[in-house]
Amino acid sequence: MPDITLTLPQTFLLLVTVLIVILAGAGYLLALMAGKDETIRQMKSAHNKLMRSFNELDEQAKLIVRTDLELNKAHEELDKRLNGLNALQRTSRQISQALNENEIYQKLRPSLFDELGFTRVLVASLEKDQTMRPRVTIGFDAPQAGTMLTQLLGDEHFKTALAESHTFSSINVSRKTKEKLVAIFEAEHFVLSPILTQNGCIGFVFTGNRTTAPAVTQGDEELIAILASQIGQSIENAQLFEKVFRSSQELEIKVKERTKQLAMALEQVKEISQKKTEFISAVSHELRTPLTSIKGYAAILMTGKIGEIPAAVKERLAKINTHSDNLVELINNLLDIARIESGRVEMKFGLHSVRPVVDNVVDLLSPQISGKNIQLNVNIPPAVEKFYVDVSQAERIFINLISNAIKFTPKKGAITVSASSAQGRDTITFSVSDTGIGIAEDDIKKLFDEFYRVENEINQNVKGTGLGLTLAKNIVEAHRGKIWVNSQPGTGTTFTFTLPASQKAYDDMGGGRQK
After folding, report:
1. Which long-range contacts (CB under 8 A, 24 or more apart) does 319-327 make?
2. What distance in Å separates the CA atoms of residue 308 and residue 393, rounded to the nearest whole number?
3. Helix (H) / strand (E) containing 67
4. Which of 236, 284, 401, 451 is deepest in the core (most CB within 10 A)?
5. Do 29 and 60 belong together in one domain?
């Protein structure tokens, strides 16, 4: 037997029909059998009651049928919206990953609009010259799309609606507007939503169907508005990405150009520095020969071997000798700086005990220290045993720094020479501190420049070359170390520098062993 399944409304109508037939038959039989008017009256009254009950049941049946139809329609609408939202979600993920505007429009495939239930689609963008450019066309060919856009741009109401960012459809526009759009797009049912960014409207999305298709709903209108919003946001993000990308490229080009300029400037500086070094070296060599002669002749005259020299002349010869010594020291410092900078100096590296080197320098400078009654403290812990240096050059570092401290430390002041070695590090940190007059911050920046002398009362009364700290810095850097200074006016000064404790440390600090 075939399987017959009845819905609830159908079952209810069938029962009502059977009941009517039974009641009608019963009324007929009773009328025939009863002979009395009273019986007929009673039967008619009962019949009327049954008919009223039937009418009430019929109205309820109709209400149930209408409710069922409305529920089915609502269910279909919900299914349609759910499918549309799923399709929009997939498309949204795709267009959000697009990096340019053309790629975004390419992601709007026919399958999306098919799932949304539309057969006629036109997505257009507003160009810089205020013309409309078709981006996506479904159900239209290119000439049709061009004609439609021309007609739309000629309609002031349409342009006003876009400018005011209105979404309109065949269920919410005026009859006149609907007739215009139906005539342009040949679609009885439609939704048209603007594509918006922070700069305003940049295009629109039109979706529609012909007369035979179901009418659009408010849900359709909302879905198309969401799609247009997603397109606008994705285009805005792509434009921002493109702007950042272009800025990055421009910055990269500028960096390359500036790097090239800096490299050229560095080469020029190196060339100038090399020429300066060569000039200083040449001039120093040229000055050394006549200075040696001057110093020699002055010494011969002072001995009286050529003849007796008056006291006044001897005094002046002594000054010549003293100034010659100062000039020789200046020339020697210049030569040493030039040799170190050019890499021509011969550095004899080796492991040497730290304490004897420092003690030797202290012993050498003890007359100057005693002359100003300065207290000298040497704090070198037993753990600091050896360092890997050219010992003669290392002594010059201590000589220059301690001499500088003596010069600027008042009588009965204090100078401290200390050393430390951090655990796990193969370098030694030395410091020379004094309780002198200190140095201003602006002067600290220039302290290691050649010939730079701080303007103070001591420097005005004591002559100097301004090369001692420069030489110390060059020697420290030749050992791959670093040197720096901390000072404030009136609180003293501390010079700190590092030297390697082993050949491995020296190699790790960036240098190969010099022969």
Report:
1. 320/294, 321/295, 324/291, 324/294, 324/295, 324/298, 325/295, 326/463, 326/465, 327/287, 327/291
2. 43
3. helix 37-96
4. 401
5. yes
Range of the domain at 123: 95-244
Domain count, the chain: 3
190, 210, 244: which is the final residue of a domain?
244
Task: Give the pLDDT band of residue 500 (cuts 50, 70, 90).
Answer: very high
Q: Bridge partners of 353?
A: 386
- The per-residue b/e assignment along 259-270, b for 16 or more CB within 10 angstroms, e otherwise, is eeeeeeeeeeee
| pLDDT per residue as tens digits for the range 121-130 | 999 888 887 7
Distance CA 109, CA 481 (A): 67
Which residue has 């399944």 as its token pair? 5
Tell how far CA 21 is from the center of its chain. 87
Instruction: Specify if 283 maps to a domain.
Output: no
DSSP labels, 384-417 = --EEEE-HHHHHHHHHHHHHHHHHHSPTT-EEEE
Domain containing residue 445: CATH number: 3.30.565.10
Q: Would you state the torsion angle of the CA atoms of residues 91, 94, 100, 103, taken in this order, to the nearest 10 degrees?
A: -70
Q: 181 and 72 in one domain?
A: no
Per-residue pLDDT reduced to its tens digit, 24-34: 666 666 556 55
Q: 189 by DSSP, 3-state: which?
A: strand
Structure-token pair, residue 239: 């434009």
Residue 153: which CATH number? 3.30.450.40
Phi–psi pair at 497, nearest 5 degrees = -150, 160
Token code pair at residue 73 = 């329609």
Q: Are residues 423 and 444 in the same domain?
A: yes
H helix or E strand, kind and range, residue 93: helix 37-96
Convert 298-333 to b/e letters by CB count within 10 Å (16 or more is b).
beebeeeeeeebeeeeeeebeebeeebeebbebbeb
C-alpha to C-alpha distance for 26 and 19, rounded to whole angstroms:
11
- pTM: predicted TM-score of the whole model, two decimal places: 0.44
Residues 488 and 466 both lie in one domain: yes
221 lies in some domain: yes
**What are the residues facing 419 on neighbouring strands?**
430
Residue of higher predicted confidence among 157 and 445 = 445
Of 53-62, 74-83, 383-392, 421-430, the least confident: 74-83
Give DSSP secondary structure letters for 156-186.
HHHHHHHHTT--EETTTS-HHHHHHHHHHH-
Closest CA to 347 of 339, 359, 355, 358: 339
Q: pLDDT of 152-210, one tens digit each?
A: 877 777 777 676 777 888 888 888 888 888 888 888 888 888 888 888 888 889 998 88
